[in-house]
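User: Good morning. I'm curious how iron/sulfur cluster would be positioned relative to this chain. Could you predict the structure with it bound?
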Amino acid sequence: MNKRDTEIIKGVLSGNGFSFSDKEEDADIILFNTCSVRQHAEERVFGKMGMFIKQKESNPNLILGVIGCMAKFYGKDLFKKLPGLDIICSPGNIHNLKNDLEEVMSKKESISDIKDTILYDKYNCLSIRDSKISAWVSIMEGCENFCSYCVVPYTRGKEISRSLKDILNEVKYLVNEGFKEITLLGQNVNSYSCNGSNFIDLLKLINDKTNIKRIRFTTSHPKDTSSKLFKAMSDLDKVCPHLHLPLQSGSDKILKFMNRKYTSSKYKCLIDNLRKIYPECNITTDIIVGFPTETDKDFRNTYDLMKQIKFDSSFIFKYSPRIKTKAFELEDDVTNSKKKERNNKLLELQNDISFCKNKKYVNKKINVLVEARTNKKIHTKQGSKSLKNYIGRSLDNRLIFLKGSKGLVGKEVEAKIIKATPHTLIAIESNG
Ligand code: SF4
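Assistant: Good morning! Here's the predicted structure, ligand included:
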């Protein structure tokens, strides 16, 4: 979500005569697009911004801004925490940045732009996208689930869905621009709802009415995920076989404290259904270890469930308390070393599972969307030295390092997998 916002910010600024500097020391304006999910990320922003504020003593015209979740989360208190800061702008107002900057420059006063505005404005701005092949498309913002550890409901506000028409127009525009793949973005895409249409309606519409090659989406919430979605994923030819479904914990006690609104057996049932309906679907997840009160037994439940389910890959996080959240009221009673130990155990388990799954692809031919050239050396016994090195994704979202002929970026090619690691597949372009 933040990456997508940065693309919009770059579009708003470059479309209004601002240009970007490669070096911080050459910049007249320094803006941080921030995330509040992890405390560590915030600490880095405070540290770096403090350093730039000192530079203002020798360069008083330097303009400093904090954009995004931290701006919304702390509001005007940021001016007290960071005296010398010029702009705070919440994620919903980034389309106003040009006006905000002009106001600061003309009035020489700080400005706070954190009132909620209409989603429509933000997504109709021009963007400078990171990729020319694969694009993020926001379908909604905000979240009302209030998982007890999460700041998003406080930084992104209530759920608002974009209209089907707006989203469809954006996807058609991207197809015309040459994009091959889109990822529909939202904090909880399964609760997309606009004028009686739901997320499955949206998937069907994009699948049937556009020429985009691949459709992905993230993130799904288990409480809003059902067999209907799995059936639609399996039926719609452009929807990729990958579901990211955060589990967070395998302990029912911890899931309750997290306010996740499902149990471990309900989650397992969903996965069993998904595998029945759509066996080739890659399943990935998020796990938090060291949530307050997590005992060895709670952790063991998570470990055992992961061992049973065998996710294709997982993102594992150590719990970090965030103010304003419900979990902040609980004592952060799992020591750092315990969190680290549990984190490492799950990483080790996941690496073994991922490696096992990836090895099954060796000698198989798969479809790869080539995203970019890479400087990474790809060692293959086969193929001539004249072959180029590329990076791409399989339909089920596996990361592929590929050796192939010239000019493959943006193309879907057939590739033969020649080697597997826990996190990647090494492939060579196949000649049929
Ligand atoms: S679903 Fe839960 S974890 Fe995800 S954004 Fe909403 S509150 Fe945060």
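The chain has a mean pLDDT of 93. Residues 143, 145-147, 150, 152-153, 187-188, 221 surround iron/sulfur cluster (CB under 6 Å).
Let me know if you'd like a different ligand tried.
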